[in-house]
Amino acid sequence: MAGPIEALGDFIVAHRQWAAPTFGLLALGESIAGLGIIIPATPILFLMGTLLGSGKLDVAPVLAWAIPGAVAGYWLSWFVGLRLGHRIYHGRALKRHRRGVARARLFFRRWGGPALILGRYALGPFQSMLPLVAGVARMDARRFNAWNLASGVTWVIVCLTPGYLTAKGLWAAGVDPRVERWMTAGLAVLSVGLVVAAFAGLGWRAWRERNA
Question: Where are the transmembrane segments (predicted)?
Answer without folding.
Answer: 25-50, 62-82, 146-165, 185-207
